[in-house]
Specification:
CATH topology of the largest domain: Rossmann fold
Oligomer: single chain
Shape: globular
Low-confidence stretches: none
Strand order of the largest sheet: 3-2-1-4-5-6
Largest sheet: 6 strands, parallel
Number of strands: 6
CATH superfamily of the largest domain: HAD superfamily/HAD-like
CATH class of the largest domain: Alpha Beta
Radius of gyration: 16 Å
Structural class: alpha/beta
Distance between the termini: 10 Å
Mean pLDDT: 96
C-alpha cells in the first residue's frame, strides 16, 4: 500500500527564489542572486522594500495578469521523482500556503509542470492535512508537523533559510526524498 506524501511547493518543488530574483533583476536592473536568500523573510532587505506586504504587492502582478507563482522554475529532479513515486502507488498530495490572489496561477502552474496529483490543499495550517510523510522547507511549518503529527515522517528540505528542527529528517535533493520514502515503506 502506498503512502500519502504531503509535498510543499515553494522552496521544495518550485524554485521560488530563482523565480523572484530573476523577475526582480529583469524589472529593476539589479543582480540579486539566489544565494543572497539566507534567512526566512529576508526579501525586503534584499529588495529595499519596506516589508513583506510590499513584496507581495509587487509579486501579485508581474505583467499580463500573471503573478510570480505562475512561471516559477522547477527544481531538478522534483517532478520526475514525484511521478516515479506516483507510479509506484504512492499518493502525492500538494500541501502549500499561498496568498488568495495566487491560487489560480498555482493551479495553472501545477498543470503546466504536470504535477501528478488529485489533491491540492492551500492552507496555512498544513499539519491539518493527514499524510504519512511531509516534505517542506518552512521552519514554522516543520515545527507544526512535528508538534501535531509526531508519529509521521517529516522531511526538512535543507535550505540556507532553515535550521535543523527536532523530529525531522534532513533531505538535500529529490534523490534523498525518494530514499527516505523507500526506507519508510520497508519499515512499515
Amino acid at each position: 500500500m502506498g503512502l500519502r506524501i504531503g509535498i510543499d511547493l515553494d522552496g521544495v518543488v518550485a524554485d521560488f527564489n530563482r523565480g523572484w530574483t530573476d523577475a526582480w533583476n529583469a524589472q529593476h536592473g539589479t543582480r540579486l542572486a539566489v544565494d543572497h536568500v539566507d534567512r526566512w523573510d529576508v526579501l525586503p532587505t534584499l529588495t529595499g522594500l519596506p516589508d513583506m506586504g510590499a513584496f507581495w504587492a509587487w509579486a501579485r502582478d508581474l505583467g499580463e495578469g500573471r503573478s510570480l507563482f505562475r512561471d516559477l522554475p522547477v527544481f531538478d529532479g522534483a517532478i520526475e521523482t514525484i511521478r516515479e513515486l506516483a507510479r509506484e502507488g504512492h499518493d502525492p498530495v500538494v500541501v502549500t500556503a499561498k496568498p488568495g490572489w495566487a491560487v489560480h496561477d498555482t493551479f495553472a502552474w501545477l498543470s503546466d509542470v504536470g504535477f501528478p496529483t488529485r489533491e491540492v490543499h492551500i492552507t496555512e495550517e498544513k499539519w491539518q492535512v493527514d499524510c504519512d510523510v511531509y516534505v517542506d522547507d518552512a521552519p514554522h511549518v516543520l515545527e507544526g508537523y512535528t508538534r501535531h503529527r509526531p508519529d509521521r515522517l517529516v522531511l526538512r528540505f535543507v535550505r540556507p533559510w532553515n535550521d535543523p528542527v527536532a523530529g525531522t529528517r534532513d533531505v538535500r535533493s529529490w534523490s534523498d526524498v525518494r530514499t527516505a520514502i523507500t526506507k519508510q515503506v520497508t519499515t512499515r
